[in-house]
Amino acid sequence: MLKQNNNRRQGSQYDKIIRENLEVTLPMIVHDVLNLDVLVSEELPDDVQHTKERKPDSLKKITDTDGNTYVLQVEFQLEDEKEMVYRMAEYNIMLMRKYRLPIKQYVIFLKEKKPGMPTFLDTPNHKYNYNLILITEIDYKLFTKSSNIEVKMLGILANFGKQNNQEVINYILKELKPLIKGDFATSRYFNQLRILSQLRTGIKLEFENTMQSISTFFKEEDDFFCCKVERETKEKMSHAFVKNLIVKLGFTDKQAADFVEVDVDFVKKVRAEMGNK
User: Fold this and answer.
1) Which of 100, 109, 138, 273 has the highest Cβ tally under 10 A?
2) What is the pTM (predicted TM-score) of this model?
């Protein structure tokens, strides 16, 4: 029961993040992930849930650039739910009955393990299917090229390809930091990214090590600018942070230089000093 409650609480955290950021992330997802060319998008009421336990994540009336009008439903799914096909079929019938329009339905699966849940029904009296999209099959760069923080963060859930996990984590964090005003280490985006990363068990340790290291550094860095302390103090902080990246995370000179935004020569100097001790 305790494990079940923990899973429910974690699921609620992820769901809250997705819903909070949906207004910003959905247009990109519709255009770049679902490959739909939208001309007009109209919010639809989600009162179709009157016979269901939960509301649709997103429900839109769409007119595309070819003049086609349809209802678009997008769901974000965390669990490999074998009943999902029935739930989506129920939505399909209710939406069709209410709006008398074609229905397009997409389920975006957020975890890294490929789900086994069926996507279609084929019975003598009923044939139905919905579109299942695995976020781990989408190139993370599709998200990080966006100018929006909320969209960039989704890159942590996507496909890193042949790149080293640590390199991609560093790149995403480096992309986010300039866009976040105030204290990066205590921002809601920092916390949201940490929560989302827990969906990727394969990167969990690397991500937590990096976040733990940079949280202190970025806070000190922000305090530096606020308090206008001497330049030497910032250099000392950078020195300590670079050393931490080399010792604890095994960064190369270039990786550390790019992440801390210092010259490679500075990193080489730190590494040489470490070797002399």
Assistant:
1) 109
2) 0.74
